[in-house]
Specification:
Helix content is 26%, strand content 25%. It has 133 residues and is an alpha+beta fold. It has one domain: Muramoyl-pentapeptide Carboxypeptidase, domain 2. It has a 5-stranded mixed β-sheet with strand order 3-4-6-5-7, covered by helices on one side. 30% of the residues are buried.
């Protein structure tokens, strides 16, 4: 797939898929541009369609400066490249969500389970990585 650059100011309301807009992936520091991998959007849309509920994005794209301020963030986090999102779905457990994502990416991608903060990290890296944060 492809990593695309969008302007929050110009493209924030642009639909990337049936249920996701550019602004949902913005860095929490409010910076522009926003980088988003189209494969990540496709993955999130499959999750949304499967559960039939809103997929909430806690963190999508991150600038290097913002990423450095996050607790336990990886220096070369997939968020820096627009390839990751930290997500949660109301009424769906971390384990249920992570298990479904595993069916979509059994041999690749990152899946991190964060029980304390109740979210799942998903990313579309080429290699397989699994962890509990």
């Amino acid at each position: 797939m492809a990593i695309n650059a969008y302007s929050l100011a110009k493209d924030g309301a642009k639909q990337l898929s049936t249920n996701f807009k550019v602004r949902e992936f913005k860095c929490k520091d409010g910076s522009d541009p926003i980088f988003i991998d189209s494969e990540l959007v496709g993955l999130l849309q499959k999750i949304r369609t499967h559960f039939g509920k809103e997929v909430n994005i806690n963190s999508g794209f991150r600038t290097a400066g913002w990423n450095a301020k996050q607790k336990n963030s990886a220096k070369y986090s997939q968020h820096l490249y627009g390839k990751a999102a930290d997500i949660w779905i109301a009424g769906v457990s971390v384990d249920t969500l992570a298990a479904y994502v595993e069916t979509l990416m059994p041999n690749k991608g990152g899946i991190g389970r964060y029980y304390t903060d109740n979210f799942v990290h998903v990313d579309v890296r080429a290699t397989k990585s699994r962890w509990v944060g």
